[in-house]
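Key idea: predict the complex, not the pieces.
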Amino acid sequence: MNDTSAYQPYVEASWGLMNHWYPALFSHELGDDGLVGLQIAGVPILLRRLGGNVHALRDECVHRGVKLSLQPTCLTADTVTCWYHGFTYRLADGQLSAIAVSPEDPLIGTVGLQTYPVVERNGLVYVFVGDADYGAPPPLEADLPPLVDRSHRHWSPHVLDDDAVVLGIRRRVQSNWRLGCENGFDPGHIFIHRNTTLVRVQGWNLPLGMRPVGQTAVSWLENDGDGPHGVRNEFGTDAYLPVNEHEELGLEPLGDGVPAGSRTSMWMPCCLQVENFPQRGLAQFEFYVPVDDQTHDYWELIVAHCPTDADRARFQRDYDDIWEPLGIYGFNDCDIFAREAMEPFYRHGGGFPAEVLCATDVMTVAWRQLVSRHNRGVARPGRPVAPDPVPPPSYRPAS
Amino acid sequence: MNDTSAYQPYVEASWGLMNHWYPALFSHELGDDGLVGLQIAGVPILLRRLGGNVHALRDECVHRGVKLSLQPTCLTADTVTCWYHGFTYRLADGQLSAIAVSPEDPLIGTVGLQTYPVVERNGLVYVFVGDADYGAPPPLEADLPPLVDRSHRHWSPHVLDDDAVVLGIRRRVQSNWRLGCENGFDPGHIFIHRNTTLVRVQGWNLPLGMRPVGQTAVSWLENDGDGPHGVRNEFGTDAYLPVNEHEELGLEPLGDGVPAGSRTSMWMPCCLQVENFPQRGLAQFEFYVPVDDQTHDYWELIVAHCPTDADRARFQRDYDDIWEPLGIYGFNDCDIFAREAMEPFYRHGGGFPAEVLCATDVMTVAWRQLVSRHNRGVARPGRPVAPDPVPPPSYRPAS
Amino acid sequence: MNDTSAYQPYVEASWGLMNHWYPALFSHELGDDGLVGLQIAGVPILLRRLGGNVHALRDECVHRGVKLSLQPTCLTADTVTCWYHGFTYRLADGQLSAIAVSPEDPLIGTVGLQTYPVVERNGLVYVFVGDADYGAPPPLEADLPPLVDRSHRHWSPHVLDDDAVVLGIRRRVQSNWRLGCENGFDPGHIFIHRNTTLVRVQGWNLPLGMRPVGQTAVSWLENDGDGPHGVRNEFGTDAYLPVNEHEELGLEPLGDGVPAGSRTSMWMPCCLQVENFPQRGLAQFEFYVPVDDQTHDYWELIVAHCPTDADRARFQRDYDDIWEPLGIYGFNDCDIFAREAMEPFYRHGGGFPAEVLCATDVMTVAWRQLVSRHNRGVARPGRPVAPDPVPPPSYRPAS
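Result:
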């Protein structure tokens, strides 16, 4: 049995982390006057768009606990009403402002639904999933990779960049969110990708794995404030040696080059940044958003810098014809397979004391320690949480 | 967290109440010489009709615990035999009278299956689901609403009336039985019905809700003996004010009249009586019969006074063309939706301390207190109980 | 409540027995160069055929716990490699010999997967499912019925005989493995078979049941060494009286003869031998191999003595046309029905204290005591075990 005390809070975070920003929806999923219910880290959340702004409330009527989103009912511009007894809540602060069936009820004005801060940027709606007594939320930027100057040699587009176009999908995966993070960030897992079409048509020499050499292979990217906090694999430096072949196992290089400037970093609460991937000048962002303790929503986003309409049109075409079929699906399907294959072993946390880590797992341990040190709270749903019925498990933007 | 101590037995009655009468089958479901297995409050029950009489035994062979109803085997007129080893039980008292594979077994005559009293009235088979050591059962009338004189201004037909015709269906609902009772009896829940076709074609002005005013809104209808024990919403008196509109929420009256003489009462163990509904002179009876702790069988019955064959034919036609499609399904589908929506919140009792009740819930609290005071026992299945495989979830009488 | 202390280890063996031989696959299911994953007694096992030999390893990579069999990967002749990070294990001893993504990893040579002894005989692959610290395994013969001399009056073919041909199927049954053993060995359970086509076309007078008389009805067949250990119903002796009719229940004999020399014995860990069945000169062997605590793999094998090719061809024809449709399916389907009917009552062991045994159950009690006395360990999976996805639930040899 392993000693897991160096990252015990991480081991206990089956349901995810509280008091962090998470992507919740693609903007196009929440139309004008739209209302959608979803679940993050066991918290039922209702999103309501009105006049361009998106509001988030707890999706559970205080009265009898039903989800308001099961039958969206909006009777006035600034409220949302429960379909069951007409409990009506103000979008602005969640306060109970009226009860249709009991107009002068003493409850009115004394209770309410928790609200959650929302930010919408470049086609994504982010929600701050906070405890009721958590103070002012940090900015969204504290829970995403930091922006770097365009002149930096590793620059690649960022989901918050002004001219960024963000295209991608979200899928429901049957594994704990931590297995998503650990698979995505793992420099050894590329072994499962080596025969994918994406790798082969580009003639990449995707290594079998990346061997960390010394202590500088993984950079701790911590911040004095709320964040961002991340760990990065320093590919392309002396700290990592690519394993290009394995004679004993008969594994030879399959191609010539590797994507230049590509490296991976993992950011709290659950964001993987892959710079200069799937080709130089693009970036892949992934999120592994906890739904419940056995399920996460897998966000796969490709980001491009598109200052002109022509750039946007070209990127959309490339995304549709190349990156989505060969990357998002063909390449990343292998990752979903791996995470779901790990799930039974790690179910209810059983795998952490039983696993046997190897040399390339130094970054996994670093990530676990980072989360244990900087998380703003561990999610602990008090009641059994039902599966999130809406929205359907997979979305992609209309092209 | 709420203090639930005022109705703690109710909170613990996830599996239902013991030592009460429950409807078990429509008479037409149990043909001559028929045998059917079902489950009430976690108790597996076998019903056997013979010579016009219906017998009920525990549907679990004492030997290896299989359900006799899985392969009905009746070798003599007054016994039922287990298909597995031929354990043969007397219908009259459940005693083990023979074992086909072991004719002189010392067990014979020393053990048996519990039997349950049965009464059949107006097309319904009722079973008294009692503990083995419970004494003489009270009459069926103790567990149904009381009969009232036909001259009473609120008179409407009763399932036990001499000339009553009872038509309806039974459906399996995925919620605890208590959520069925509470939804059906709730004077506020009519908010979910206001746009149904039944309401609109009749031009009713179904209120948004009914506001209780003072302590007389809910009558406690208790009995010195075994029962009946019920609580009634005194609609049509000064104790209830209909909420016809809600200006702030833009909700206006939709019709003109309301069904005259309509009021609702809830009777132990699980019967809702809606007098003069779905129209004056008819009555709707509903039962929310516990199957297990997450499922109930929902009985929806319309009762008419039909002294002549012509009356019966007319009622059958109205039932087929109007009351079943518009009422039983169209109107009450909303109730099933509401109960199943509440289920995750109340699963394993978690909702009782967490809910926030409002003014119209005084009748819900009264019902919980009534059950806590007068129940004859709380069901506590000792072993895990398998889902009831037969009969299929929905039945309706052949028309 | 019964006192189960006379066979407490049996009551605790929900997941099966450890350190015993079990049939794992039909030989034809594991082709040249084949690799298959399966689960026995909660243990995930990978079988790999190479150069005529079959190797068995724990099917769970030490690293992140995934099943190697999910994506079979064999890069060298004497190893199996995990598809995820290339952890490579020697077939001979399970030692970790290489890691594709981390060639000089300090783990190499220090850890490994447990291996399991394998024996292949007459078309069946047997695996010894042992604890890691269990010493040298006993021979396969210790976990099968003993061979008897061909001159013995009860002789019938044995799965280990030199000229034996073994034909049959395997099916997944939704019941605990002990219910399989107890149903198969029960002299009273033949009541469920009496109306099957197999019985009727042969004109057998299958008794209603077999009544044990005195203490010699069940023979304890124990061995000073590791085994075999069994219990046998001494049908055909004075110790058993067939129950041919039951006047009170109107049950009469249906035929004339009975299969001569037929008797049943139950062998640890889970083998039923039915000598001279389904006809004189044949034998039926059954195994009830635990998968998890609610599921077993049911092996149904008919064995014939076939010294010549003509004998083999004739047996194959009879098997295809008669024994499989009428016996394996028609006759034994009733047994599966009975076991699955018992499962809810015995779930989590609840039935053992609650059952009421009768006179014919002396052999059931003898079997429980035998297992309690001679088992080499009770399976206790430390972690939740996922359902075994491969192979599919039912196989039969190509005819």
